[in-house]
């Protein structure tokens, strides 16, 4: 599960980053499965050394999972992100970048994704600017086998163009929503993780 990349030294940094992106993708794409919810509830929250990065926000996310049953989390997901018509909170980058869905930011994203040799799974109804899709792209750029594509330069470029400009705004929207409990904790963890990512990429510039 996901306690390892946050709180133990057993995984190398790149594997840990990839697994965090995978967790975020899963939790933003849908309410957690039974297995994922159970794993979150029993996840380790005490870091091997005091002051570990993300320790506080990770512990709060685990506490939220422990404090809410699976049905509660599912209802919260639907209340925030689901429903017919306009959702309470959008999970799509175009909304935050342009104020509309399916606009120029999505077209630019599709061009860059195609240049990476990637394509949206036809079974996925959401457009490519969904936060879960972007997290999956980042995971691939970290953990993929093709070093011509999966490398720090590509990660930095994709993050700077398609993640960093809007994801903090989405996190703020979630955290400020009165119905958010589990997803408030997830948004806070996401925001903290993205801050660490941004700092790391800045060091490469």
CATH class: Mainly Alpha
When the domains are counted, the total is 1
What average pLDDT do the residues reach?
Answer: 89
Q: Number of helical runs?
A: 11
InterPro entries: DMSO/NO3_reduct_chaperone, TorD-like_sf, TorD/DmsD_chaperones
Protein name: Molecular chaperone
Keywords: Chaperone
Organism: Polaromonas aquatica
Could you explain how this protein is built, in words?
InterPro entries: DMSO/NO3_reduct_chaperone (IPR020945), TorD-like_sf (IPR036411), TorD/DmsD_chaperones (IPR050289). It comes from Polaromonas aquatica. Keywords: Chaperone. The protein has 205 residues and is an all-alpha fold. The chain has 11 helices and no strands. The longest helix is centred in the C-terminal third of the chain and has 23 residues.
Topology (elements, then pairings):
Blueprint: H1 3-7, H2 13-29, H3 34-41, H4 55-67, H5 70-81, H6 93-98, H7 104-115, H8 131-143, H9 152-163, H10 167-176, H11 182-204
Helix pairs in contact: 2-8, 3-4, 4-11, 8-9, 10-11
Keywords: Chaperone
Pfam families: Nitrate_red_del
Organism: Polaromonas aquatica
